[in-house]
Amino acid sequence: MDQKQMAKADFVTAILLILTCLFIMMYVFLAFPRFPEWGTIFANPGFVPVLLAFTVLLMSLNLLVRSLRRQGHQIRITRDGLMNSLRANKSIRFLTCLGLFVLYYLLLGRIPFLIDTTLYLFLSFLIFGRGKWFVALLIAVATSYSVDIIFTRIFLVPLP
Amino acid sequence: MGPIIILQELFKLMTPEKLWEIFWSTQLGIIVGMLPGLTATMGIALLTGLTFQWATGDAILILICIYVGAIYGGSRSAILINVPGTPAAAATVFDGYPLARSGRAGEAIGLATTASFLGSMIGLFFLSFFTPWLGQIALEFRSYEFVWLSLFGVIICGNLTAPKDPLKGWISGIAGLFIAMIGMDVIQAYPRFTFGSIELSGGLALIPALVGLYGVPEVLSALSEIKKQEKAMQIKRVIPRLKELWNNRRNIVRSGIIGVIIGAIPGVGENIAAYVAYDFAHRASKTPEKFGKGSEEGLIAAETANNACVGGAIIPVLALAVPGSPPAAVLMAAMWLHGMRPGPLLMIETPNYVYEVSAMFLIATFAMLVLGLCMVRTMVKVLNIKTAFLMPIVFILCAIGSFAISGRTFDILVMLIFGVIGYLMRKYEYADAPFILGLILGDMLDENLRRSFLLASGGGSIAPLFTRPICVVLIALTLLTVIARNPHFKSLMSETRETVTRSLGFGRKKT
Cβ–Cβ of B399/A104 closer than 8 Å? Predict the structure, then answer.
């Protein structure tokens, strides 16, 4: 990532961090109990989180100012630009990978672990390995069974 | 007394079962370190979950073996395929790969192995004899000191692990401290930021978070970026020549000590140790022009320092409950999970534990030496495994490792969320080490800061927080760490230096 792009990323990150910190501080002030019987407000459960949120807020403001100086606010979001970045090979692979993670997680507990793992591995090998489907299936089945045997019999680990 | 206890502990490890455990786990560590994308932190985090059901001694022994093996293992891929297997081996690439390209791959591996062995031995020396001493000092620590220690740890870690942009390192560290606040607080048992979730009321489990931060981003990067996989080079002679090592004796001792010192600094880690030692070796060398082109000195410096750093990083874990590096942070979390309480009280409750850990470290170091010099040709074949096949399996192991500790599917979700956070942090150059250190030290900061105020409200004063001698030192170090990165301060310092040099009359004459 070049300096220009990083300045833009810093600008967006700083705004997100500032909003998060403000939310945390507001949430603590409004929702946290005061515990007056403990004698000091500094012993309240919200004290340290507010202190930390305030520190990050100051640092984020610094980041924001710095990114503004580097023209980080000049962000133009166009439909074409967005579509192009989504269509980029890296983005597609990233989203596919993430999608497979989420699918694996969502299916855990709903279908047996062995089937879920085999399915995830098969799809991953097929998509990212670009090999023949039956080879991918064979490796996926063999790996899932090996994982199951190694972890349940040797490591005595409960599997999902 | 210490060496005798280490020997006694060492004899206890000399059973066939333990030796088997030591050798397979060290070999596994070497393989984890060798494979680009699998780091020591990730290896330890994974094995923590997987060995959770094992006896404490066995589990910690395995994790130490993985740690030592993985930090060394990174040098293999650095030398053979020009890709550091772990961040710790990043400086090894500079001279390891040129040596391999000149047909001396085996020799480079042999030198890296012996340098790692000697570095580990230097680390072990300091671990065994320095920890009890630091532990005695740590007994003087009260709530006030722990407040500043946790802040200092996060700030210096942010400073050193994000040298280009320390502000991002500090944000990362403070964010880590904040994330540690999630869950029931330790003083009033109030559930903070749980938003009604029962799973969150116990706080975020450390191991799934660490597995997520270190494992998932690697899988995501490896599978989304298409990189050409290099073939490993052929290896001939591996056993190094003693003369070469003897000629580098000063380099080894210097790099080892640098490794230990950097290891003992909270959260900084093996990669920084290797870079600093490499730089020192470069400056001290009689043949600096060889550096980067296949210098044995450079290779030895980097490898000695990164393995010496392992011992150094365990020192603050045992004495202060503050990890010296990200893998040491996971090791500390594993000790907590197994009921050990590293920190100042360790020296009172279980004074021999330091020597027990030292014995484990010593035997792991010998296992690393043996395995590092044998079966090299067979083992480097692992480097030819396709990333597209390896990484999905790594993801499955991450999921199992996260699930294994509490048996909750929710922990896999935590791993996934932290994985995405870790990926974004890497992409936008927020160092992950301070974040992890913050996660570990968050409870320490919260509990001790609030306790300090409670003590003050009960008739005491808050003044000790700022006036106790150790507090003053830690405050000064923290402020200096922050101020030293300020450009105005830097220019002021260089101006002062110039003025002093000129007024004393020993400045360099310009030609």
Answer: yes
pLDDT at B75: 92
The DSSP bridge partners found for residue B191 are: B184
Q: DSSP characters for B128-190?
A: HHHHHHHHHHHTT--HHHHHHHHHHHHHHHHHHH-SS-HHHHHHHHHHHHHHTT-EE-TTT--
Q: Which of B392, B446, B450 sits opposite A120 (nearest CB)?
A: B392
Question: Taking the model in full, what pTM does it have?
Answer: 0.86
- Across the range B57-85, mean pLDDT stands at 91
Which residues of chain A neighbour B454 with C-beta distances below 8 Å? 38-40, 43
Residue A90 with chain B: CB contacts under 8 Å: 224-225
Dihedrals phi, psi of B433, to nearest 5 degrees: -60, -45
* Both structure tokens of B202: 């116990």
Cα separation, B139 vs B470, whole angstroms: 12
How far off is chain B from A27, nearest CA to CA, in Å?
A: 9
CA atoms within 13 A on the CB side of A153: 6
Going by pLDDT thresholds of 50, 70 and 90, the confidence category of residue B510 is very low
Write out pLDDT tens, residues B34-50. Answer: 887 778 998 898 888 88
Q: How confident is the model at residue B191 (pLDDT cuts 50, 70, 90)?
A: very high
Burial of B323 (0-12, 13-18, 19+ CB in 10 A): buried
> Which range, A30-34, A84-88, B1-5, B255-259, has the best average confidence (pLDDT)?
B255-259
- What b/e sequence results for B127-143 when a residue is b if at least 16 CB atoms lie within 10 Å of its CB, and e otherwise? bbebbbebbeebeebbb
Question: Is the CB of residue B285 less than 8 Å from the CB of residue B295?
Answer: yes
Q: In 3D, which of B181, B178, B161 has the Cα closest to residue B169? A: B161
CB spacing of A45 vs B187 below 8 angstroms: yes
Give the Cα separation of B67 and B45 in Å (integer).
10
B154 touches chain A (CB under 8 A): no
Half-sphere exposure of A122 (CA within 13 A, CB side): 14
